[in-house]
Amino acid sequence: MTMLDSLFGLIPAASTGQQWVARDLQLVNWGGYDGHHRVRLASTATLLSGGSGSGKSTLMDAYIALLMPHTTPFNGASNGGVVGRPRGKDQRNILSYARGKVDESRTEDGTRQRVLRGDGHDTWSAIAMTWADQSGTQLTAVRAWYVPSAARTLEDVVAVRATVDGPFDARDLEGPAAQRLARHAVTEAGLTCYDTDREFTARLHSTLGIGAAGDGSKAVGLLGRIQAGQQITTVDALYKAMVLEDPDTFATADAVVEQFDKLTGTRDQMITARQQVKALEPIREHRAALEAARERVGVIEAVGSFDDGTSPAALWRHGRRLGLLRAVEADLHGRHQQAGQTSRETAARVTAARAELDGVKETLWASGGDRLATAQRELTAVRARQEEVVRARGRLDEVLAVLGATVDDEAGLAALAEQARAALADPGAKERAFAGLFDAMSLSKEAKADLAALEVERAAVLRRHDNIPGDLHAARAALAQAAGLTPEELPFVAELVEVRTEHEPWRDAFNLALGGFATLLLIDAAHVRAFRAAIDAVPTARRIRFQGVPTGLRDDVGVDAHTLPGRLDYRQGPFTGWLRSELAERFAYVCVDTPGELAQHAKALTRSGQVSEGNRGAHGGQGRANVLGFTNARRLAHLDEQVARAQRRVAQAEEQVEAARAGHDRYEVVRRAHEALVATSWDQVDVAGVEAERTRWEQVVQDVTAGNPEVTRLQERAAELEVTIQTLTEDLGRTKGLAQSLGDDWSATTDAVDTAQRALDDAQDAGTALAPDQQAYLDTLLAGTDDVGTDDAGTVAPAADPVEALAAFDAVVARAGDLLRADRQAAQQTVAAARDALRRTFETFVERWPDPNLGTDPDASYPDFVRILTELEVSGLHELEAEWRKSLLRLSGNDLTDLHNALARSVREIKERIRPVNDILADLPFSDDDHRLRIDARDTQSAVVARFRKELRDLREVLSTQATDAERERRYLRMAKVVDRIRRSSPDYADLVDVRRHVRLSAEKVDLDGNHVALYDHIGEKSGGESQELVAFIVGAALRYQLGDAGAARPRYAPVFLDEALIKADARFTGRAVGAWRGLGFQLVIGAPNDKFSALEPHVDLKYVVLKDASGRSRTKPVAGLPGTEGPA
After folding, report:
1. Poorest-confidence range of 212-226, 568-582, 948-962?
2. 449-458, 777-786, 939-948: which range is least confident on average?
3. Which positions are tagged coiled coil (predicted)?
4. Are 155 and 145 in contact (CB under 8 A)?
5. Which residues contact 812 (CB under 8 A, 6 or more apart)?
6. Which helix or strand (DSSP H or E) is residue 162 part of?
7. Using CA atoms, how far apart are residues 116 and 98, in angstroms rounded to an integer?
8. Fewest CB within a 10 Å sphere: which of 2, 96, 297, 454?
9. How far apart are alpha carbons 147 and 157 in whole angstroms?
């Protein structure tokens, strides 16, 4: 493409399109630019250079404040690490620029800003920029702010947004500023005001041609990023951030989610309908139970009471009982006659049996039967006595086994009994048995107590790291609590020292030598007075000695290794310095091996604990418990040995207790044996004597029966007749009694029949009738009368046992009142339970699905809920299920297909979007005239995305087929998992839906024939100059695209501000980057530090140096360029 150098910069020769360039930038009271300043801009490239903090970025920020939204931060190039909201209190903002903030200083009330203006009085600020096209048309945009002295936020400021078709001098706002920038005053100055930023930016975008199809926000956002010089590391990130907008897949995914949520709503409605049907299904059953129970209560109240002779209940009872009584009357009459006949027959049989027995006895006595009877009687008695003697002998043998003795005759038993009496008379035997057991148990108890005490002591020692006795610990704890101190602030001397390992044999000697000093309680001398006052009322069982000592003394007191202090280790703490000094002064005992060496030293100590101080000395006390040390391993070992010995003592004592208990038990057994032996006589255990007597009587019986066999027969016949007479006599008595009882019962039953008939007649005369439902109810309730049958006419028929039937009926009727009351109560409870169940069901329904038109009364609201249930069962639920199926098919047929297609289509569109940018780049020499830059795209779809798209296809096919409810529910859950992944809140959302991530973009250097020469992927891999040129080409082409001029010969909006840009290369590469921007038709305004001036100076047409004086005020000074460009105007 042939380029021409015109007033408006390098433009294509064939271009006749409109282009706006910035003519000048005016500042009034903006940052360090106090008063009015005008900066004229070259139509090609302008350089603003200066030292750090001179005000270059302030000029750049003025352009941001004028053209860009409030979300664009100030000073983005220099302060990329700032935090907080853009233009907030932690960043540069309108207020700080309007007041000209210099710095901050600390005061008594906090921090205070030092400003150039507006400190205690109102101020104002304004920014204006004028653009012009090649036809001479001009447009000026103005932003101004009136800042009251009390303003703290932007809401406290009067803001002006205005434009004018032509030039404008910002100093003309001084008059309106005196009126607080009132709308009418600004309008009178020739400006057109806008109420909102939206209206203001829309005017600028439409007039200046910023953005394609009226969307200038993306172009302005890109201009802001370009100005800030934000770091982008890859070509891929650069292109995606600056060229590609959000793909259609975002909207398509949102549509799928929305449709699925509607499907979920239909499903929820269906589930709700099912839940409502399930919740209301029991009400019909409850209602039926309620009505049945109410009917039963009505019948119970109608039948009345059995005590009321004229009630239906009494009529039913009389009718039933009359039939039963007549059956009993007939049964008793027949049984009474039969009993009389049986009685007479039995009496005749008894008389005949007695006559026969008398004849048998006369014959028997005549034949010697009296001697046989005597022998048999004696034999029976002897056999019974023999059993008792055998059992007694067995008990005697058990006693003899305990005593280890045997007895064969009466004399031996008498001798043993005499010995037993003597043993029982000995009073000392029992005392000895009890004394042995008591002594053994006492020893066991004492041993267990000693063991428990040692275990308690060991547990207490285990919790500590010292050897101080427990009573001293308890006393110290009580004093420390009273004084508000911790035990660690009140150490014992013994807790602060430890015998060195190599001098362990001297521990007992050191323990004796230190004596009471070891248990001295140390306290900070500063606390002594308060400590004494606090503990005065505290009682302790163990007396505590304490001493206030200075703390924090230097721990550098020298001690001799041959003396007691030199053979100790000291625990570091506030008391260590004093303690070392005290021990060195008072207990500097030289450790000697023999008593003969004691006199050689002023103070000396032997291994046995004897001390000498001149002519004085001390000895003894060995065996005293050790208290020294801030470790207790030695004491724990000693306690373990004591515990082991105590455990052995306990085991031995238990063995002694068991032996003593066994001895005591033996004494009791022997004593009981002696008592049994004394109470036994020989005739009680003479088994041989009893056996001899039985043999003698058996011989007598044999002698009598062997000589006369007829005696035996007669004797047997007499025995049989005696049994027969006894049996018949008993039967006769029972029969007579039965006949008398049946006669009495028959008479009483006859009277009862008459009484029942009269009662039945009275009830019928009173007009009482028994309804069929009442009869059925009473028959069912009093089921115990079912043994009484009824014939076809309904009259009572006699059962198999009328008496039992009558008794059963009377038993049931006797409790009929209780049965009626119980049944009435049960029916009433059923009514209450059914009403309560209905109420709970209604309340639960209304609570889960509120409806102001539904009540919860079991009777009044029942029809409404039955209607709801019927509607749900008949139509509502089916319609929802049909809608559910329809929605499921619709989601599969449309939305999932659209999403799948959109994913593929958007990738193609990204690749197609590269074409216009590549068309722009194809006409621009890159690196040299023989090469060009080209953007290349390749697919980078991951396995996760591939599986997701496959799941979309599979799910779409599955959803299009018929399914059962269970399968449909499973499909819904499967679909829910897919849809949840494309929700904006999903962690997979960007990877799956943002198709920009499915494509990797890179740049490549090609020759004029399009052949590949070099790859540009990571910008950071190139040198500073190469990266500048690469970014300029790509970003410039992207800006042309965003401005909507990709197909035009040059951009309609030319200005591009670059803050801290093009500073990473030498003049040659910088020139190529500037040439790239200008070749794309852009007007450059570059801010750079002084040290980069030489690299940029050859490639710009207008140069300024930004200066700042000692007061913090900035100004611009032109170096070369247009005439009349001095800073302050």
Report:
1. 212-226
2. 777-786
3. 636-663
4. no
5. 782, 784, 785, 819
6. strand 158-164
7. 9
8. 2
9. 5
Q: Which of 260, 265, 345 is nearest to 732 (CA)?
A: 345
Tell me which residue has tokens 């997701």: 948
Alpha carbons 320 and 311: distance in angstroms, whole number: 14
Taking only the tens place, the pLDDT of each residue in 416-453 is: 777 777 766 767 666 666 667 677 788 888 878 887 88
Mean pLDDT in residue range 680-698: 76
Are the CB atoms for 439 and 660 separated by under 8 Å?
Answer: yes
8 Å CB contact between 1105 and 49: yes
Tokens of 628: 């020294």
605 with 578: CB under 8 angstroms?
A: no
Of residues 777, 756, 785, 774, the one with CA closest to residue 823: 777
User: Do residues 1115 and 1101 lie in contact, with contact meaning Cβ atoms separated by under 8 Å?
Assistant: no
Predicted confidence (pLDDT) per residue in 463-489, tens digit: 676 778 888 888 999 999 999 999 889
DSSP string, 389-411: HHHHHHHHHHHHHHHT----SHH
Q: What is the pLDDT of residue 153?
A: 83
> What gap in Å lies between CA 312 and CA 306, rounded to an integer?
8
pLDDT digit string (tens) for 1100-1119? 889 999 998 888 889 999 98
Place of tokens 């041989």: 688
Per-residue 3-state assignment (H helix, E strand, C coil) for 330-354: HHHHHHHHHHHHHHHHHHHHHHHHH
Contact 1025, 962 (CB under 8 A): no
Torsion of the alpha carbons at 832, 838, 842 and 845, rounded to the nearest 10 = 130
* Cα–Cα distance measured from residue 457 to residue 515, given in angstroms and rounded to the nearest whole number: 22
DSSP state of 212: B
Compute how many other C-beta atoms are within 10 angstroms of the C-beta atom of residue 78. 19
Residues 6+ apart with CB under 8 A from 487: 473, 476, 477, 480
962: tokens are 């018929």
Closest CA to 192 of 133, 141, 128: 141
DSSP character for 247? Answer: -
Residues in the chain: 1129
SS3 content of the chain, % helix, strand, coil (to 5): 60, 15, 25
Token pair for 578? 């004093």
Burial per residue of 1037-1072, b for 16 or more beta-carbon CB atoms within 10 angstroms, e otherwise: bbbbbbbbbbebebbbbbbbbbbbbbbbbeeebbbb
Q: Which residues pair with 611 in a beta bridge?
A: 605, 618
For 16-27, how does the pLDDT look when each residue is reduced to its tens digit (9 = 90+)?
468 899 999 999
Cα 7 vs. chain centroid, distance in angstroms? 74
Write down the pTM of the prediction.
Answer: 0.46
CA pair distance 920, 291, nearest whole angstrom = 90
Contact 1104, 1117 (CB under 8 A): yes
Q: What's the confidence (pLDDT) of residue 402?
A: 72
Residue tagged 């004591």 (tokens): 642
For residues 868 and 280, the answer to whether their CB atoms sit within 8 Å is: yes
